[in-house]
Write a structure and sequence with these properties.
alpha/beta; D-Maltodextrin-Binding Protein, domain 2; five-stranded mixed β-sheet; four-stranded mixed β-sheet; about 45% helix; globular
Length: about 475
């Protein structure tokens, strides 16, 4: 009996030893599919196509590191309305089937992160910059657009400016010298030429027959963030980081609304201008009918390639059109521009079903190179996101992009706040009513603030 008991114990011990000492079989080669969803116009295809180049680099690195994973990228690139684009992502995320990498406006971070659809990439800007040399090359001020609650949630993909454009030929006809025209951007940058000066110049041009009535100044014809630049020009503010509250500055808001009405009353902007068809707008500003206008840096390429192709494209534009920061509303205050970075975000494992989120992050580093981002910037007329691009030949050779890259030193962003769309709706309604003459600027401000109080409550800070 003791003999059998001894043998049984020996077998158990032997089994344990061999079981514990047996090496787990190495995991074999594994293919990891990373899905990417981006949106944009045909000239913005590098938002998705850059991943075809980046995946080659990532796979070569994985092989050299002895990592048995191989990445395969699957892309979807189209151009639906932003509302439809966001809605489709939310539905997929709720089902646990969202793409691993999603492109969006930086303001989408607040919505996606709060819902748990995306994952934080780093606990600080210093941490994200240390993760890859490509991330360290990103312009420092762009990281603020990717932040929420102290963490980094996105990687900048592109950025633009919203310049103040002016017709050089019309200013010359008005009597400006070449030196005066060339000095205008610096005067605006230094706060020596303001919105009031612009109105005065536009009125003079109309009175002297240089431009037709109503063609002194054209803002964008449809709703959009460009209008917030006037609010900022008068000292406006979106957000208070210390309290995490949205902000409305009543004095700046009234001055902005008054400006919108004044440009109509003074005859430099047409009555009932809001709602004008974009094609009419593009044709008028690109063909020299307006003296001043506000547009996007990305529209320069559209004017050259679509509206002015038969007149020489960019050569015609450089000869006839100048560009500067948005003028301040207060003399001595620097001009500025609102920028709206698009950013890549990494979907959480819960929302995508993919455990290999580290590979998605590695891909984002490899699409953020000066070579790939410059291809996108030059083809779509967007400003580069990297410090190294300013001296990079293919970017430097693009005169327009090189000229406007300084504007990133004077830009600001909309806030990453879940209720910002509510703020926008109320602000837009009040501005539109003021410009159309449905309410006085003061009455529009009173109604807007009342509405914001009701809808935002404790999330609003009134100054």
């Amino acid at each position: 009996m003791k003999k059998w008991l001894f043998l049984a114990v020996l077998l158990i011990i032997t089994g344990v030893i061999f079981a514990g000492g047996q090496k787990e079989p190495a995991e074999g080669p594994r293919e990891v599919i990373i899905t990417v969803r981006a949106k944009g116009s045909p000239t913005e295809h590098w938002k998705a196509d850059a991943f075809d180049e980046a995946v080659k680099v990532v796979n070569a690195e994985l092989k050299s590191e002895g990592d048995n994973r191989t990445v395969v990228v699957e892309k979807m690139f189209d151009d639906p309305d932003w509302s439809d684009f966001v809605r489709s992502y939310i539905m997929a995320a709720d089902a646990g089937e969202a793409p691993d990498i999603i492109l969006g406006g930086h303001e989408h971070i607040a919505i996606y992160a709060t819902a748990g659809y995306i994952m934080p990439l780093a606990d600080s800007v210093s941490e994200i910059k240390a993760m890859a040399p490509e991330f360290a090359d990103v312009f420092d001020n762009l990281w603020s657009s990717c932040m929420l609650r102290g963490k980094v949630w996105g990687i900048p993909q592109d950025i633009e400016a919203r310049p103040f454009y002016f017709n050089k030929a019309k200013l010359e006809e008005l009597g400006w010298s070449d030196a005066e025209i060339a000095a205008l951007p610096d005067k605006i940058k230094n706060g020596q030429y303001t919105l009031d000066d612009m109105i005065a110049t536009a009125k003079e041009a109309i009175s002297k027959g240089v431009v037709e009535p109503g063609y002194g100044y054209w803002h964008r014809p449809k709703r959009g963030p460009d209008f917030y630049q006037y609010y900022f020009s008068y000292g406006g503010q979106f957000y208070d980081a210390a309290s995490d509250k949205l902000v409305v500055v009543k004095d700046a808001l009234e001055k902005w609304y008054a400006f919108q009405r004044k440009i109509v009353d003074e005859g430099i902007t047409p009555k009932n201008f809001i709602g004008t068809d974009w094609r009419i707008w593009h044709d008028a500003v690109s063909h020299g009918k307006a003296l001043f206008w506000n547009g996007g840096s990305w529209q320069w390429g559209e004017w050259a390639g679509v509206y002015l192709k038969d007149l020489g494209g960019q050569d015609y534009l450089f000869e006839n059109v100048g560009y500067a920061l948005q003028p301040a509303g207060v003399r001595g205050q620097s001009g500025g521009t609102l920028s709206h970075p698009t950013v890549y975000m990494v979907t959480s494992e819960k929302a995508s079903g993919n455990k290999d989120t580290d590979l998605a992050v590695r891909l984002l580093a490899k699409v953020s190179t000066k070579e790939l981002n410059t291809k996108h910037a030059v083809e779509s007329t967007h400003i580069g996101i990297l410090k190294s691009q300013a001296a990079y030949g293919p970017y430097k050779d693009d005169k327009f992009l090189s000229d406007v890259i300084y504007m990133l030193d004077y830009n600001y962003f909309m806030p990453n706040h879940t209720l910002f769309s509510t703020w926008e709706d109320a602000i837009w309604e009040g501005m539109q009513a003021a410009e159309l003459g449905e309410r006085s600027p003061a009455d529009s401000v009173a109604k807007t603030v009342k509405l914001l109080k009701a809808e935002l409550g404790d999330d609003l800070l009134i100054k």
